[in-house]
Every structure is written in C-alpha cells, then in structure tokens.
Write a sequence for this structure.
C-alpha cells in the first residue's frame, strides 16, 4: 500500500501544471455548473420557507416571519398527512416487492422461449406500456374500469358478480394502483434481469446437461444463482424509492372519494402547495419526505456498494 | 439433444402463456382504438370490447378540426427538439471532464460531488416553482426545458462510456497538439454515438410524456404541451368551459369516443417509435446499473 502510493506520488504532476491543463475542463463544466446551481441548488435555499410564515408577495429574499418548527408540528397532527404517509409507504412497498418477483419470473420464462423470433416479439410488446404516459393510461383505465360501461365490470356482471367501482372505492383503490403499475412496468423491468441471464457462462448449462439436469433443475441451480447479484442490487436500490409512490399515476387516477386510501405525500404536497396555496406547509411536508428519502437512498447506495460492489461514478 | 416430454409440454404452455401476457399488454390500447371508432351510444351501453360497434370516423373528423389539440402537439414537438439540443450538448460538456482522473483534472472529486448531490436532494415542488417564477420563466417554453437540461443520470451514462475509450487515443492527440475541446468534439463524440443515441432516446421519451410541469408552469391552456393538454381536456373535461358550438358538436359525437380518439392519437408517436429504439434503451439501462 505504502509503496503504491509512493509510486503514484512520483507520477503526479505539479499542482500548477495540473491546474493549467485543467483550464479547458473548467470551461466545459461552466454551463453545467451554472444551470445546476440555478435549478438544483438554489431551490434548496428555498426550503427555508418551511420555517417561515411565507408571504409570496415579499419573495424569497423578503422579510418573512420566522416560525421555527411550527409547520412540522402542524403536519404531525394533521390526519391528511398521516394518511398520506401511511398510503405512500404501503403502496410503494407492495409495488417494489411484487415488481421484483414478477420481473424475475417473467425474465426466466421469456429466456426459456425456444424460438428467438417469438422471444423478440414478446419482449417488444411487453415493453410497450412503459412508454405510455400515465395521462393516457389513466384515461384508458377510467374507461375500462368504469362501473357503468367498463369492460371489466361487464365481465364481472356477466359472471354473476356485482360491479366494482375500482377507482372510486377505498376498498379497491390501492389494489388498482398496485396492479396497474405492475402491469405497466413488469415488462420493462425484465430488461436488467434478462441482461444478467445472458451474461451467465453457457458452459455451465452444457455441463449441467451432461450431468443429466433437466430444464427446471438448470433454472434452479444455474439461472437463479446467476441472477442473484443483480436481484440483490435491485432490491437494495429499491429501498431508496420507498417514499415515491408514483405521483404521475396517483394524480391521474385518484379523486376526493379515495383520498383516505390513495392520497400519497407527493399529491398532498401538490394540493396543499398549489391548490390551497399554503406554500410553507407544503414545503414542510416535502422537506420531511426528502429527509426520509435521503436517509433511505443513502443507506441503499451504501448497502449496494458494500454487498454488490455497486458504484455510481 | 433429447427433449423429454415434460419439457415439450412446458415449452408449449410457456409460449402460449407469454403470448397471452403480451396480448394483455396491448389490450387497453386496442380497446381505446375500438372505442374511438365506435358509435358513442354503443360505448356508453358497454357493448364495445376489442372491435368497433357501428363503425364511424366521427370522432376523428372532429379531432382533425380541433385546433387546440394540434397546437399542443406542435408545442410538444418543439419542446422535445429544443430539449434534445440542450441536453446533448450539456451532457457531453459535463461528462467529458468528469471522465478524467483526478491526476489530469484538478478538482475532479469536488465537481463529481457537485453534480451528484442533486441526485440525492432537491428543493421539491414549491421551492422549485418559486425559482422558476422568480426567473420570469413562467408561461415560456424554457420553463419546461432549462430545469432538466443537466440530468445527472445522463452524465453518468455518458462518462462511463467515455471511460471505455482507450486513453492512448487522447495521449496521441495531445502529442499532436490537439486541445481538449478538439479531442472532445472530433474524437470522443464521434466515437460516442451509441451513448448519445441512448440519452437522446431517454430525453425525448421523458419530454414527450411529461405533463405536470406544463400544467403548473404554463399560464394558459394554449401554451400546454400535448400531455398537459390531455390531462386537462380529456381526464378533467369540463363541459362548462367549452364554447356553445363545441359543446353542441361534442354532444352529437359523444365524449367517450372523442376522448378515446385523442388518447390514441397522442400515443401513436410512442407506439411507432419505441420498437426501433429498443437496443438503445436496453444498453442504457445495463450500462448504468451493472458495474463490476
């Protein structure tokens, strides 16, 4: 270790020369630095309004009244907030855990297809929903799931059941969110797992065949263990998104009737902030969410680095 | 190779199952198409499934004459094109220096952190909104383009690609007297077309489908990009806001088929384009996530 760093020191150029040679690099970075400062760092300064009774007319630099933790005390006694927090966590935990399991199953099944033409076609088609915006899909699902004329409910009544108001009843709304999100993303999620399967050494399968292992045994003893590192990595990285229950989807599909079970933190932040125009309270809720998210993302990266050697840069 | 009977049965069942699943993935869009081509009374009665009932093009005839829809589509196209230029230039300029080692680029770690931190924390809705508003960008297309012109994820994709280019090429060019700008634009970028294409795909998909910023940053529905327009005009259609002629025409065609036609036409660009871009987004996903 010591000799290695010594060797590196000898190679290192003097500071002045390194600086001079780096000047073009600084110039290249300059536009990015400015934009990131304006659009990413400056809003962080704006987080201060969570601690002030913010009056928009006076502006961010104006003389606002400091109220300390008042808004944070307010959110914890607010039933809307507790509902939204609970809904966010429960919806995203279901989505994240089921999405991994389903993507693993489908990537194995797709990989087992013998005809490569069929394989390619199936892959292409199951990727489709990922590329459609939730605005479009929400419109489609509102029609499909409508209790009056929706196809799903026609099917249910034809089988002798009662029509279900999937998007308007607190009993079904969360389930509908979870199922439609899984439907939209499962195909796309198989991509990473399929890539992991392709990188498994084919000679392993050859020797397994020689040893008389059938397809199911090959899947169990070669394919799955070969996928394990990437499964672990995806599971760890998923921890970081527990606080995101998919604003796009919820906003386009929910309604006041299902706020109790379907309102999530991001939609609450939007309504409190831009509909009720309570900027400070909205920012306090957002800041609470960001702090928890930061802890989760930080630990997920840390764990991913430790257990899967994952590095971002 | 011998295939046992069990495996044969498995192959058949697996193929059939996956074909059914694939059909399930396109079913909602097929349903939309069928609804858009049907008579509204049939739709409301719940008679339409995957085939039009009482075929009519009325909703499409109405759509063709709907100025606001096409105006929004034009805004979306403009947004995607301008975003692409900004994003590609900024990403390349940012990723190139960061792909160098600290030995070559003094302060590299500091700048790497500077661009990485926004991935972890952000100001959130209101502070970002206040920033855009105090820059007087509200109501201009720049509010939809500038805030996302430097995306750390794209920078990481690109810098990983740059690192894969052998350092000897750069050394040789430096000895020949080329500057870093020239090396970036005449050597690195032409070699990086696959990663530029990947980023272009992600960026244009994201910008085309983005709807929320349009709603909060634009002052007037005539400035909405297509997805924002659909959000307001189709998901939250409010008959009071329509002009009397529009309302009369709509009640003739019926809102269900007319909504379906708009949603379907808005989805067409994505449906047509994504199959050809597959190799790029697949590459991007695996490039970014699986490393050593």
């Amino acid at each position: 270790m010591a000799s290695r760093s010594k060797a590196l020191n000898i190679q290192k150029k003097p500071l002045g020369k390194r600086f001079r040679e780096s000047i073009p690099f600084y110039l290249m970075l300059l536009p990015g630095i400015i934009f990131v400062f304006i659009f990413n760092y400056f809003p962080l300064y704006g987080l201060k309004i969570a601690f002030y009774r913010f009056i928009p007319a006076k502006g961010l630099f104006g003389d606002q009244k400091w109220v300390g933790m008042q808004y944070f005390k307010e959110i914890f006694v607010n039933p809307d907030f507790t509902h939204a927090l609970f809904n966010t966590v429960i919806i995203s935990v279901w989505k994240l855990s089921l999405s991994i399991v389903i993507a693993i199953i489908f990537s194995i099944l797709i990989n087992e297809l013998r005809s490569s033409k069929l394989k390619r076609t199936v892959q292409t088609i199951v990727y489709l929903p990922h590329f459609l915006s939730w605005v479009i899909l929400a419109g489609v699902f509102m029609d499909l799931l409508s209790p009056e004329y929706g196809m799903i409910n026609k099917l249910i009544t034809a089988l002798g059941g009662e029509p279900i108001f999937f998007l308007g009843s607190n009993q079904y709304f969360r389930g509908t969110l979870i199922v439609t999100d899984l439907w939209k993303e499962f195909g796309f999620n198989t991509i990473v797992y399929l890539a992991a399967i392709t990188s498994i050494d084919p000679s392993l399968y050859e020797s397994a065949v020689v040893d008389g292992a059938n397809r199911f045994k090959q899947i169990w003893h070669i394919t799955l263990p070969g996928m394990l590192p990437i499964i672990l990595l995806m599971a760890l990285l998923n921890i970081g998104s527990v606080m995101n229950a998919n604003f796009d989807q919820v906003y386009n599909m929910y309604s006041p009737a299902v706020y109790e079970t379907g309102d999530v933190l991001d939609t609450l932040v939007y309504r409190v902030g831009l509909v009720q125009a309570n900027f400070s309270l909205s920012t306090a809720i957002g800041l609470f969410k960001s702090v928890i998210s930061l802890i989760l993302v930080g630990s997920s990266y840390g764990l991913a680095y430790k257990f899967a050697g994952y590095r971002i840069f | 190779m011998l295939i046992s009977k069990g495996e044969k049965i498995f192959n058949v069942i697996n193929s059939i199952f996956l074909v059914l699943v694939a059909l399930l993935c396109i079913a909602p869009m097929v349903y939309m198409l069928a609804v858009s081509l049907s008579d509204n009374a049939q739709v409301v009665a719940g008679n339409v499934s995957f085939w039009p009932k009482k075929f009519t093009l009325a909703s499409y005839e109405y759509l063709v004459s709907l100025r606001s829809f096409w105006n929004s589509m034009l805004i979306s196209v403009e947004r995607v094109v301008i975003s692409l230029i900004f994003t590609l230039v900024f990403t390349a300029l940012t990723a190139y220096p960061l792909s160098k080692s600290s030995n070559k680029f003094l302060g590299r770690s500091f700048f790497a952190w500077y661009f990485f931190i926004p991935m972890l924390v952000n100001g959130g809705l209101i502070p970002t909104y206040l920033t855009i508003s105090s820059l007087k960008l509200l109501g201009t297309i720049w509010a939809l383009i500038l805030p996302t012109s430097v995306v750390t994820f794209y920078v990481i994709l690109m810098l990983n690609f740059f690192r894969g280019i052998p350092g000897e090429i750069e050394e040789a060019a430096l000895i020949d007297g080329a500057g870093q700008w020239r090396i970036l634009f005449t050597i690195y970028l032409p070699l990086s077309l696959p990663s530029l294409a990947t980023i272009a795909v992600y960026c244009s998909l994201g910008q085309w489908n983005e709807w929320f910023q349009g709603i909060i940053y634009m002052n007037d529905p005539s400035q909405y990009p297509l997805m924002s327009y659909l959000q307001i005009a189709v998901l939250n259609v409010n008959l009071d806001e329509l002009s009397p002629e529009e309302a009369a025409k709509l009640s003739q065609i019926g809102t269900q088929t007319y909504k379906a036609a708009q949603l379907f036409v808005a989805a067409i660009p994505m449906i047509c384009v994504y199959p050809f871009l597959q190799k790029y987004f697949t590459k991007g996903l695996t490039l970014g996530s699986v490393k050593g």
Remarks:
- Chain B is about 75% helix and 0% strand.
